[in-house]
Specification:
Radius of gyration: 13 Å
Number of domains: 1
Structural class: mainly alpha
Distance between the termini: 29 Å
Number of strands: 2
Order of helices and strands: HHEHHHE
């Protein structure tokens, strides 16, 4: 799963290739981008339990990633901001939903 996240995260918004970033930084980028989509789309939410499970299985701790996540989030928010809400939601689900192409399962539907 870590390899899939790393490989697909590198495609985000002109991101460097997996060869130039560590797996941990690519995971941070995926989480940061998913959080930005969560802000842009009111019907999705970061699935913290799933993300924690993925990180645990990969042997990656979240605390050291937080500075990267926090530093990248504004960039992703600015990239997503021009999108209409419906477009942001569709893209969020396509990239991070249950069958997401970037980091499957990172976002789930917000409970009503």
């Amino acid at each position: 799963m870590l390899t899939v996240i790393a490989a697909t995260a590198a495609l985000a918004f002109g991101a460097p290739s997996p060869e130039t970033l560590s797996a941990e930084r690519l995971i941070a980028r995926s989480i940061s981008e998913a959080l930005a989509f969560q802000r842009a789309c009111p019907v999705v939410v970061l699935d913290q339990g799933f993300v924690a499970t993925v990180l645990a299985k990969a042997g990656v701790r979240i605390a050291p990633l937080m500075p990267d996540i926090d530093r990248q989030r504004p960039y992703h928010q600015l990239s997503i901001a021009p999108l209409e809400t419906i477009t942001a939601c569709r893209l969020a689900r396509r990239l991070f939903g249950p069958d997401g192409t970037r980091a499957a399962g990172f976002l789930s539907d917000r409970e009503r």
